[in-house]
Design brief:
InterPro entries: PucR_C-HTH_sf. 47% of the residues lie in helices and 15% in strands. The chain is α+β, with helices and mostly antiparallel strands. It folds into three domains: 12-138, no CATH class; 142-266, no CATH class; 270-350, Arc Repressor Mutant, subunit A, CATH 1.10.10.
């Protein structure tokens, strides 16, 4: 990295909330730090000062360009801006420049080929972080996302959830459902990304009467008024965790009391013996799982044979073997109930969406 620049063309820049900051002054203050302070610490202190000053995006990239001594740019929501080391806007050159993502679709880059100067990577990292903070503070997308996060958070104070519902234009007495999907599944309309113990999950809110063509895996929560959408989110997440290749879309309404049992299962620290036996069986015989699911949902083994295009006698023989492995008879009505519960608890324990 070159010596800290002495700027002549960049004097004062107004931040997005009207605060005037001397960018040149920031650099001179950094130069006055302990001479033995590392250049890396100076970079971090520089961007921290800009963030705390609520600097806007233009100010951030102009500052980064001056630090690098080369062009720096960013793109976000269809807008692309690049400036040279003096802070003047220029046309970005095409190339495989070092870059760093921020926000939903934002990207910041330095127009200097690798390996570049020693602190280029740190400057780019801190620039992307600062641009992400700016985006989160000002973007309508980010504001909508935060409102959705508040509405579905049961630990959030009720007034915060109500404020989020107003920002989302949710009608107080109308019923809505939360839809939960993995991040890789497309979902129309505004969404929020929620970090869960089962992986990052995308959440969306829809009117309860709205018919959507769901793409699995998807969990659909119980219908609730805006003030209780946190419970719809909880049931949507449980429904998502109960999805299978056979049933890629699960709705909490159709799962009925199984949703209640699933919620209680998370609070239990012990794994039932039926689930332990099922886990061991599936680990040793992965292909047994589709057959077990079909048996749990069917009234007869003959029906299972028809669904899976197998000979009836083969299904009978296999069901007997699986009953021995599970230590209960899956061919009886009571056995199918036990199997249904064991399969549900197994899915809750093993379904991940990372």
């Amino acid at each position: 990295m070159p010596d800290w620049p002495e700027w002549h063309t960049i004097e004062f820049v107004e931040t997005d909330d009207g605060v005037v900051v001397s960018v040149q002054g920031l650099v001179w203050r950094l130069k006055a730090l302990d001479p033995v302070a590392s250049e890396s610490l100076k970079v971090i202190a520089y961007f921290d000062t800009l963030i705390n000053s609520r600097a806007n995006a233009d100010m951030l990239i102009r500052g980064a360009a001056a630090l690098c001594g080369c062009p720096v740019g960013y793109s976000l929501e269809g807008r692309s801006i690049c400036v040279d080391a003096s802070g003047q806007r220029i046309t970005s050159e095409q190339g495989q420049w070092p870059s760093q993502p921020f926000g939903i679709d934002g990207k910041a880059w330095i127009q200097r080929a690798r390996p570049g100067f020693v602190n280029d990577e740190l400057i780019l990292e801190r620039l992307a972080l600062a641009l992400g903070v700016f985006w989160d503070r000002t973007s309508p997308v980010a504001i909508t996302r935060r409102a959705m996060e508040a509405v579905i958070d049961g630990d959030m104070p009720e007034e915060k959830r109500s404020e989020g519902a107003r920002l989302l234009h949710l009608e107080r007495d109308r019923m809505y459902r939360v839809h939960a999907t993995p991040v890789t599944t497309s979902m129309p309309g505004p969404t929020a990304l929620v970090q869960t113990p089962f992986g990052p999950i995308k959440a969306g809110i829809r009117p309860s009467t709205e018919a959507l063509e769901e793409v699995g895996p998807t969990g659909v929560g119980l219908a609730r008024a805006p003030r209780e959408l946190y419970y719809s989110w909880e049931t949507a997440l449980l429904a998502l965790r109960l999805t299978t290749p056979r049933h890629s879309v699960q709705t909490a309404d159709e799962l009925g009391s199984l949703i209640v049992l699933a919620g209680r299962a998370d609070d239990s620290g012990q794994e039932p013996t039926d689930v332990t036996n099922l886990r061991q069986l599936v680990e040793g015989q992965p292909k047994a799982l589709p057959l077990l699911e079909a048996i749990a949902e069917s009234s007869s083994l003959r029906s299972v044979a028809g669904q899976l295009h197998l000979h009836h006698s083969s299904v009978q023989s296999r069901a007997a073997e699986l009953s021995i492995a599970l230590a209960f008879d899956i061919r009886t009505p009571v056995g199918r109930v036990r199997l249904t519960l064991a399969l549900a608890l197994f899915r809750l324990a093993t379904n991940r969406f990372d």
